[in-house]
Amino acid sequence: MARQRDTITADNGLTNGLEPGEMPRDATTEHRLTLREASRDGDGNVKRGEEVYRLAPDMLALNQDNVRDSYESQRAIAHIEGLMAAYERGDYVPPLLVQPVANENGQYVIIDGAHRKIAADRVVRERGLKLRLSCMAFRGNSTEQLMYMMTSAKGLALDEIEKARACRKLVNRGMSRQEIASAMGVTVTWVDSRILLADAEPEVHQAIRDGVIEASVAIGIVRESGIRAAQVIRRLAQKARQQGRRRVTGSVVNGPRLSPKTANALLDSLRTAYEQLDDEVIGKVSDWEAQLKSEDMSDDELKNTRIEISGAALMQLVRGWGVVRAFEEQQQIKEERRIRRLEAREQEKAASQHTGTGEREAPENHHAGVTERAGPGNHHAGVRDREEPAGHHTGDGAEENDIFGVVPLAAHQRSGQAMALH
């Protein structure tokens, strides 16, 4: 049974059992329970979950076992700057996940939220803003922590190299490829390819991060070329530049792909031509292949050898070649158009730089790409990370800096002793 609203006596205005901060309502209106009230009803439908603690940024430590190996890439810097702007505005930012027991320095190691920590440090240092970050304790062993880092959707997505190295770490810790694939919702083939990438040379990793080559293309080259992969990528990158391309794609490696329509037309011509050949002709071709392999016949001798085939077979071969030529001409037209577009962009860029209008405009909204931010209007009391004045009371009626229920946060910082998030 849900509790009915406690009433207010009209003659004296005294409240009866209202929550701290709850405004009196009409005596005839049914009470709408707060989540805290509902969790105390005892029917089990609403239960309080993990507690959220609020820590000063210097109480948090980056995880040395983090799957991220760099916070200085262009995308990471843009993400951090977006978070800084969110902190300055007092926007809602999701809680960090931290290990429940402090390390030897009295700090809590971050499982998820490294960019939020770095952004908070910069805001405190560069803007003089006082912050406390919402944090929750993560329960799980080191392998579970690593898996969470890989699958978390709260922060900046891992790049291909970070995913690959995380897969390698999980395998080294005893997880099978099938277990990793099931946990991540991917195929075993995907896991195998990332482990292959993790074991590749650093030059291959850097080429992917620099945008020189697509990760999927690099994986194929590593699989085919092994330790020569970096050398092959360098050669293909030069080829791509000569073609006016910015990076190595599948078309640079394999050439243009035939459309299904073109491929079917070519296959039909070849199939029909082959069916027009008699057994004697096919037998002679097999003999020539054997003689070439045994070096009993040279290429020049084969060129001077004549054989009689039907006009129908020859016609189909010519038609097949016509399909190939039409495809090549179409690709040539596309390539010429692409080069013209590239040249036009380069000319526009040069013209804008010459007139002084080529300066990069500032982003309209730094926080637009912040994936850690909740929707607009979600700025509830007690959720913002901007520090309130000293002595401010939280919704629990406790002092804000007494978040551990033992001694104030400042006292913990002075003692430097290890603490646990209960």
UniProtKB/TrEMBL annotation:
ParB/Spo0J HTH domain location: 158-219
Basic and acidic residues bias locations: 344-370, 382-396
Organism domain of life: Bacteria
Segments of this protein annotated with the region Disordered: 1-30, 344-400
GO CC terms, sorted: chromosome
Pfam families found in the cross-reference section: HTH_ParB
InterPro entries: Chromosome_partition/occlusion (IPR050336), HTH_ParB/Spo0J (IPR041468), ParB/Sulfiredoxin_sf (IPR036086)
GO biological process, any: chromosome segregation
Matching SUPFAM superfamilies: KorB DNA-binding domain-like, ParB/Sulfiredoxin
Protein name according to UniProt: ParB/Spo0J HTH domain-containing protein
Species per Swiss-Prot/TrEMBL record: Lautropia dentalis
